[in-house]
Design a protein that fits this description.
Layout lengths: L1 H16 L6 H31 L8 H32 L3
Helix pairs in contact: 1-2, 1-3, 2-3
């Protein structure tokens, strides 16, 4: 779970650092960060599935892990949307009023 959080942090930092850079290198850097985030999200989901299968306690004990995995997916999707908007944002911010 911690690795998933670190990967999302690195992904967001990469998008922010390359937001105004529309070069192929910047796009590749963002794509690499997204791929890493996707891999860690997949690992987190698999770990959670194993935890579900092995868990024998109360279902309430699962809620925080389930909430974490859900919000990590949402955060990743939001960062991905931000990375795509950067192309349109540059044109809008530099266009004459």
């Amino acid at each position: 779970m911690a690795e998933s959080l670190r990967a999302n942090k690195a992904y967001l930092q990469t998008v922010i650092q390359n937001f105004h850079d529309r070069s192929e290198a910047a796009g590749r850097s963002i794509l690499d960060a997204r791929r890493t985030t996707g891999m860690t999200a997949s690992n987190t989901d698999e770990s959670f599935q194993r935890y579900l299968g092995e868990h024998s306690g109360k279902t309430e004990d699962l809620s925080s892990a389930m909430t974490f995995t859900t919000y990590m997916r949402r955060l990743t999707a939001s960062i991905a949307a931000l990375s795509l908007v950067r192309h349109d944002a540059v044109e809008r911010w530099t266009a004459p009023i």
